[in-house]
Design goal:
The chain is an alpha/beta fold. The protein contains five helices and seven strands.
């Protein structure tokens, strides 16, 4: 079974989308994050209804009861855990592969243009590639998929910088991995992205 993980956080004002607070205010940034997450979850539910994939929400902030009250009790929830984004991604992939998942993919909730077609293409490509990357306009990525665990792709990365995609690619080249690419899309992280 293939596996799709959504990385998100409980939309608490002041702790959510903090880089957007100067433009939207704490309440506005949290509301924006809430809407983006709900849109992503709706799309993933549609995808899972027609594609052989298990899904999971990895969250930070709030608690299980708050997450279920917000997004529903029918979803599988896990805490993201501790460490930087790389530590948390590596752990979520490791756990999924330990559960005998055949291909694992992680997405965030910042990409408005992520579609059912792109998710489908990503899983299709993972049948031939070691890793799939969806590059974001800001130098990061909106999607990463692995055919098996390569923990190195989450180490030594300057998370939150414009170097994330390039640094990840460099690690892939060092490991001689077969890399597949998805269309480059925009992530909404900073006030200038809102346009």
């Amino acid at each position: 079974m293939q596996h799709l993980i959504i990385f998100t956080r409980y939309p608490e004002p002041g702790t959510t989308k903090t880089r957007l607070i100067p433009a939207l205010g704490a309440e506005g940034a949290a509301k924006f994050h809430r809407q983006m997450t709900e849109k992503t979850v709706k799309m993933v539910r549609e995808f899972a209804a027609s594609y052989p994939v298990s899904t999971e929400i990895r969250y930070t902030g709030g608690n299980l009861a708050l997450m279920q009250a917000w997004l529903g009790v029918d979803l599988r929830y896990s805490l993201q855990g501790s460490g930087d984004l790389g530590d948390r991604l590596r752990e979520s992939f490791r756990e999924a592969f330990e559960l005998k998942k055949t291909a694992v993919m992680a997405i965030g909730t910042d990409c408005l243009d992520l579609s059912l077609e792109i998710l489908s293409e990503a899983f299709d490509q993972l049948k031939q590639q070691d890793i799939i990357l969806g590059p974001a306009d800001d130098g990061g990525y909106y999607l990463i998929g692995l055919s098996r665990l390569f923990p190195e792709v989450f180490s030594g990365i300057s998370w939150g910088s414009s170097e994330v995609f390039q640094q990840t690619l460099t690690v892939c080249q060092q490991l001689d991995l077969l890399v597949g690419f998805l269309p480059q899309l925009a992530d909404i992280d900073r006030p200038e992205d809102l346009k």
